[in-house]
Specification:
Oligomer: single chain
CATH superfamily of the largest domain: SGNH hydrolase
Number of helices: 13
Number of domains: 2
Largest sheet: 5 strands, parallel
Structural class: alpha/beta
Amino acid sequence: MAGHDPPYASMVLRIFESFGGGMKFSSLAIIAFLVAVATFPVHGQQAEPDDQPPSVEPNYVADPSSLDQEKIAWMQKKLLDWPQLARYRDDNARLPAEEEGRVVFYGDSITDGWGRVDGTEFFPGKPYVNRGISGQTTAQMLLRFRQDVIELKPAAVVILAGTNDIAGNTGPASLDMIEDNLRSMVELAKANGIRAVLASVLPASAYPWRPGYKPAAKIRALNEWIRQYAKDKGLVYLDYHSAMANAEGGLDPKLAADGVHPTPEGYRVMAPLAQKAIDAALKED
């Protein structure tokens, strides 16, 4: 962080000093800390593909005094288990220790909804495991990668992530930051003998929960990096984007009613592409 002298650092210091360095913080102190972290400038970001400022969850940058108790409680709950390790802990314990041909689908709500949204199927008869969590960013996924991927001992993992980073769900995220997290997940998989399939981020020309923000250009830029990284590392690139994008770089209503989350028809487009990618990843060299 050399070369930066952000005012946020002193703000965080004052927060902790005001509590004598103890570990018990009021709700407003927690919110103030979130604001500082969420708006902290990042050194060495690559140029973004458009002139939009980074998107960010509005509650993270709001005046703490403007937040009602419901919003404060929501953020406190998020802090208690930021990577959401509790979500699949019991499900993981119930799985057989090992299973031939096991594949983990790892991602956010787009993965989470696969087989759980009415009218969708999640690869019936296949030893595939869904470990998606709605709203997650690559930073959260990296923290739970050991529990929800490595310890399941899959033959392969299909990683689909990045759109929530672009949306700013856990604070502003540059493309460099997203790429670093994806790179780290791939390296962890490789170190544990797991084949990694890198999926493109699905098209989106708008986010319903971020009115006015236009993510299509950043999604295309991230996907180009994923494609090139996969090529350089000898990984399989799973290209959903090319098969699903409309002229605006988004999803038509038949594929995603809200422009982001696939309909049953959207998942039917994705399924054979995913299976082909898995087959390629598991094929013997």
